[in-house]
Amino acid sequence: MLQRHIPALRSRRRSLPTEKRSSQWDCTARAVKTLLKALAAEVRRSRGDLGLSQEELADRASLHRNYIGMIERAERAPTLLAMEGIARGLKLKISELIARAEDRLG
Length: 106
Prior knowledge:
Order of helices and strands: HHHHHHH
Radius of gyration: 17 Å
Structural class: mainly alpha
CATH superfamily: lambda repressor-like DNA-binding domains
Strand content: under 5%
């Protein structure tokens, strides 16, 4: 559906053979999942370092505690606004939170 609204994606996707298209999307999906797992681990570690419960972090971030849990289990990809709230709740800048998650990737 997204390709219909963004011509660049639509034309690029058509230009690749089917087997290359699927492997490209598979690689992208794996990379996103890996980054989400690193972010999840960093949120959980940082929260633990501050001695916060998921509920306390959720209150600080103005999010629901279930959403924090889903992020920490890498079940949901947080929005930029959610990441900003989580970073604020962890007393970090959003860039620091992302950098720490990237450091986990090696």
